[in-house]
Structure formats: C-alpha cells, structure tokens
Design brief:
135 residues, alpha+beta, Nucleoside Triphosphate Pyrophosphohydrolase, three-stranded antiparallel beta sheet, two-stranded antiparallel ribbon, 5 strands, globular, NUDIX_hydrolase_dom, hydrolase activity, NUDIX_hydrolase-like_dom_sf, Mutator mutT protein, hydrolase
Amino acid sequence: MVDPERTSAVLIGRLDRQGRLLWSLPKGHIEDGETTEQTAVREVKEETGISAHVLQPLGTIDYWFVAERRRVHKTVHHFLLEAWGGELSDEDVEVTEVAWVPLAELEERLAYADERKLVRRARELFAAEIEEVAE
C-alpha cells in the first residue's frame, strides 16, 4: 500500500522464531464471502490502521511451509493499494511493528524475495504511469 504521493509504502514487522524482526507486506486469510480485493483492503486496515482502496493487482505468490509438523500450501494475492485515511497503528496482535518506508528503501527492508519482486513491479507501474502523464 502506498501513500497518495507514491513516495512511501506501509510495511509490517513480525518476529520470527529466533526473535528477529522481519518486514513484509500486509496480508491475511480470505473470510467467507470476501473477494481477494476485499480481503486485501480489510487486512491492510486490520494490520496497519490505514484505510485504502485497490488500484490494481500486483501478482500472486505461492509457497509451502511447515506448521504443526505438516506441510501447508499458501497462495497470497497481492494488490497495489492507495491509502486514503486512518492512522498508522500496530494494535494487531500478529504485528510487532508498522512503518511507512520510502519506496527507495523497500527492497532492502523486505525479508522475502518474492515480495521484493512485487515492489519492483509496482515501481515499474508507477514509472509507466508517469510516462503516460508526460505524453
């Protein structure tokens, strides 16, 4: 999720099992009756305190992990969202820290390569948007 000026994005920090703070994009589970877009908007609000609307899809990440000694497959649908209100908050129990991070620093801050790739895609979309306006 980016600010309206497209200069910063919100990241969430969670502690891993070793106590390290890992920064990532907000995300969560789809609730019954929700679309993936509605889930993205709700999860961003719950995890960051910021209200936002969907600009466009960014991509899907599929991965496997082990939980309670069984393999779990997860698919995460990411969207480019734009903030329109709210106050930054880390009140979600799953989130340790929340921060606005300058776009230029996102890739070095994000813990996961797949999410860094999504950030590059968003930056390409912003560059194309600027070119269209200039033409």
